[in-house]
Design goal:
The protein is about 40% helix and about 0% strand. By secondary structure, it is mainly alpha-helical. α1 runs antiparallel to α2 and α1 packs across α3. The longest helix has 14 residues. It is flat, with a radius of gyration of 32 Å. The relative contact order is 0.07.
């Protein structure tokens, strides 16, 4: 288990921290650090944050926290339960419309689709391609069969 003295970082964050320490030690100019890290002058404030708060300031503050847009787990489970009981033979789009009409549950189509795939309640079904009959190749290039489908004798009697 990670203690308070252990910081977990990605490779990208380690690279950033290395560059920031070079700037703090005055071995690299801030302008050069901007171009290496791909940051603007305003975004390079991470240097002052590292000075003030330490190496953990490189890590984004919302890491490990749930999303503000996430639905509560009970709504998610209730929706999946309703789908399995009432709308099991519907696709996600139609099921979403019915969930809104009948049960007053409003979520995005793609959200419902992702939930259903997560709980193995629905899988993507690809349509079969229409069978195309194979035609035998002609003997010479440019040779085609010409048929006259007309009832009239246009050229010959």
């Amino acid at each position: 288990m990670a203690g308070k003295d252990i910081i977990l970082m990605s490779q990208r964050e380690l690279k950033r921290l290395h560059i920031v320490h070079k700037v703090i030690d005055k071995r690299l100019k801030q302008k050069d650090a901007n171009s290496i890290l791909g940051l603007s002058d305003r975004q390079i404030r991470i240097i002052s944050n590292v000075r003030q708060y330490g190496d953990s300031a490189i890590i984004h503050g919302s890491r490990g926290k749930p999303s503000n847009r996430a639905f509560p787990q009970d709504i998610k489970k209730h929706t999946i339960k309703l789908y399995r009981e009432k709308y099991y033979d519907f696709g996600p789009t139609l099921a979403n419309e019915k969930l809104f009409e009948a049960d007053k549950i409003k979520i995005a189509d793609q959200t419902l689709r992702n939930w259903l795939m997560e709980y193995n309640a629905w899988t993507i079904k690809r349509k079969q391609r229409k069978h195309r009959q194979w035609r035998q190749r002609k003997h010479s290039s440019g040779e085609i069969v010409q048929l006259d489908g007309s009832h009239h004798a246009w050229v010959e009697e």
